[in-house]
Flagellar motor switch protein FliM
Amino acid sequence: MVDVLSQNEIDALLAALSSGEMNAEELKKEDTEKRVRVYDFKRAVRFSKDHIRSLTRIHENFARYLTTYFSAQLRTFVQINVVQVEQLPYDEFIRSIPKLTILNIFEAAPLEGRMVLEVNPNVAFAMLDRLLGGSGTAPSKVSALTEIETNVMERIFSKAFDSLQEAWKTVIDIEPRMEALETNPQFMQIVSPNETIALISLSTKIGDTTGMINLCIPHVVIEPVMARLSVHHWFVSQKKARDEKDQIALTHHLNQAKLPVIAELGSSEITVHELLNLAVNDVITLNKPTNGGLQIKIGEKVKFIGNPGQVKGKVAVQIMEVVEEEEEDVE
């Protein structure tokens, strides 16, 4: 789109040309030169700003679910927040994490490919210490995991993927499954070094221990559902049809719900003195005529008009008329 200059800008431009501050020939030369934009093929841009915003929203929910899950498991203060969502080459991610860390490699069917949940050793060992009965402090020196520690880690993080499944429900139903737990990033090659990944960084605080949890999602893994990460799909997507089994169960429970049914002859007001002196054969005058029909209330609303009677020796009411909504308040 061509920019439109204001009159003041035009006057200033003409004054600069006439005074010699600007050269018309140089301006023409600049326009004819090709404009080159630098593009680094090692840092290919695969995720748009729209995609990044959607990933941020999804994983903000993931962070909340994780906070609830770890708080319940560790029985201590846990706070997890999304710090940053960015795209970078896989090789750069591998070089940025510690040489000894906790790498939870997992798959999420129906998506094809592997993803990684990297947990900083300070955070991971604080969790481990808490699960094994400690106060939840990270050791001053991080060492290799024993077989027991590895099993404990696998158990707590494999269940943490349920939070990821819940967070992605608005986009796609996935079934995350832990595939392996590694501690050396050099032994983990889930995609080619130049493959673009989405890196979701979560700041984590467990008691007094702080650290990062990084979720690495290769572009090639979520490429089939990239269209669903657009703002248009996020807000305009149709509501999912209710599952038939859920609908049958809901109908069944509604049919079993009990509501009070009251047939009201009428009402009257008497004094306490009159109430205390009531005797057999006394008559209380109601506010309704005998031929006016009974108001039948469902809950607190009048729904029907009926006549009193008996059926098989029991008091009963015969429905004679259905009360429309606008007639409910009519006395």
